Automatic annotation (TrEMBL):
Residues 1-58 form the HTH lysR-type domain. The keyword Transcription regulation applies. It comes from Clostridium diolis. This is LysR family transcriptional regulator. Signal peptide: none annotated.
Amino acid sequence: MTIRDLEIFVEVCTQMSMSKAAQKLYISPSSVSQSISALENEYNTKLFERLSKKLYLTSNGKELLFHAKQLLYDLGQMNLKMRNLSYQGLVRIGVCTTIGHKLIYPILEKFQNLYPSVNIQVEIGNSSYIEQKILSYDLDVAIIQMESPCSELTYIDFLDDKLMLVCHPENPLAEQTIKIKQLSLEPIIAREPGSRTQKMLQDIFDESHIIPNVTWICKSIDSIKEAVIHNKGIALLSQYLMQDELKNRKIAKINLEEYNFTRKFYVSYHKNKHLTEYIDNFIMLCSTIKDENPLKVR
């Protein structure tokens, strides 16, 4: 087994095709096949199932992929450091959409004050997407909403959040306390599939046997806000994201009689992840937000 074998294995996993991996790496398909066979012989296990001319990673293949990506990443960081001694490393941070919209910035500012020479790479997406990036070792640490705990991840309490139904101030339901049934005919501004905020709202509709009238599907917080401001429907948003709009009467809240929308955010990382000093301190800085008032963040 060589480093090159691992590089080829990771590329095959990325492409899920030996021929495409060969093209990407500018080597022959037989060389790719030999590397995969060498790894399978080395560890006496199958890394891929081959069904209907398609590749599927086995459980052992998934385990090797995580460690291979970690090893290759650490090797790349070592090479960068040794070739440029001023290089301080990279921290890859994932944040779910709500946190990425506003709350991540004061944490990053404090982190950069501590480590001005460390490179930071931030990726924003819904929690399901970010969780998969942690599991595949494409991110070092993340802040996400947890639907159900994953046995491969560590979770640390970060922040409690309350979500509110909001609408245009001229909507007849504005500032009213209503029952869920009153939303059955209202236009709903929804988040994209994979959003756990959207799943929370959908679960309540399902529980009440309501098919929501979804008229907009948005992938960003700003697009949801704009749709509400332009009176296109009702949305569910975090309390931390609407302070200015509520204050300026651009949007109004709706109180739902039967339900209280609350959730938790967690700092999360893979249990097998080697935590560097930088990652440890990022996690520590995240914990300080509990002692502050996030609603004052601008």
